[in-house]
Amino acid sequence: xxxxxxxxxxxxxxxxxxxxxxxxxxxxxxxxxxxxxxxxxxxxxxxxxxxxxxxxxxxxxxxxxxxxxxxxxxxxxxxxxxxxxxxxxxxxxxxxxxxxxxxxxxxxxxxxxxxxxxxxxxxxxxxxxxxxxxxxxxxxxxxxxxxxxxxxxxxxxxxxxxxxxxxxxxxxxxxxxxxxxxxxxxxxxxxxxxxxxxxxxxxxxxxxxxxxxxxxxxxxxxxxxxxxxxxxxxxxxxxxxxxxxxxxxxxxxxxxxxxxxxxxxxxxxxxxxxxxxxxxxxxxxxxxxxxxxxxxxxxxxxxxxxxxxxxxxxxxxxxxxxxxxxxxxxxxxxxxxxxxxxxxxxxxxxxxxxxxxxxxxxxxxxxxxxxxxxxxxxxxxxxxxxxxxx
Length: 390
Fold this sequence. Notes:
The protein is an alpha/beta fold. It has helices spanning 16-19, 37-47, 56-59, 66-83, 110-129, 152-172, 197-204, 219-224, 229-238, 266-277, 301-327, 329-335, 352-360, 365-369, 375-386, and strands at residues 12-15, 51-55, 89-91, 134-138, 143-144, 178-182, 191-192, 213-215, 246-247, 289-291. It has two domains: 8-323, TIM Barrel, CATH 3.20.20.150; 329-386, no CATH class. Strands 8-6-4-3-2-1-10-9 form an eight-stranded parallel β-sheet.
């Protein structure tokens, strides 16, 4: 074992659907056999993972009778106990079955919305039974191609009604559970409601129990829209709403690729890990680190476990690089806060006196603008740390 091999303390998790991805895509059939949930638990434990996450139907097939459901869950719990893994997060598949072709919570047919609520309640019960503390909602079918089918405000209101309903369900049952909402701009719908983490953060503020609801940002989903994932995560952290996170890799402007973490845009992956780990001296994220990605279609089963180990090792390598970068004296010098005893007290907490003092300050804009900020030097130093020459 070396420094970059994962341990339980790293809080790394995978979904049954991630390592269980068979390599099927819209243009080709599966290239790998499905993996049973109990086998997946064993193999993830061998790789050094801490947790395993699931949609309801990743574990219990859709429509399975109660006796079959109980047997599957019993065997899965036994495997978790045997191999020392936990289930930190669960979610509901509200996108695969044809009933959800027009959405789930936002669908025009009230029977579809009723079915989505019922399925979610059952899946919440399952997640809690397995020990999940976070419950994710991704609205994969909550969107449109024919946008005239409904007023988008109706979709927002219906989604609010659903989440308020499910929050009350969790409260009434006294579950120790909170919700995390996952944004995506498109795919499988032409446009998906709440396309970014910023949309979700505002929506949460309109709920009856906003304290129960946060976000689950995903690298690929924000990158598809050409946005800085690190900035979105930082806003969620600043708001106290980063309840869970999905790590993978993505090229801008492409379909949802779900590549191995760090395999694209290493700079952004580095900046993300730096943020999450708080190596700048800021408060770190302490929740699960979930890899929502899958192995290339080129791989057999052995390649799946290479993929899983690669996600975890890359994260730990980037963490070490971030620690070294932020301990670098030159970096600390360049990014140190500029202190001005006369100005700093005036910049927060409005009073009439502070406003008058700000107006009276002698500031020469041209002189201030002449000062170089040394960001070229900072960025080059970051690259040298990333490339391993520092």
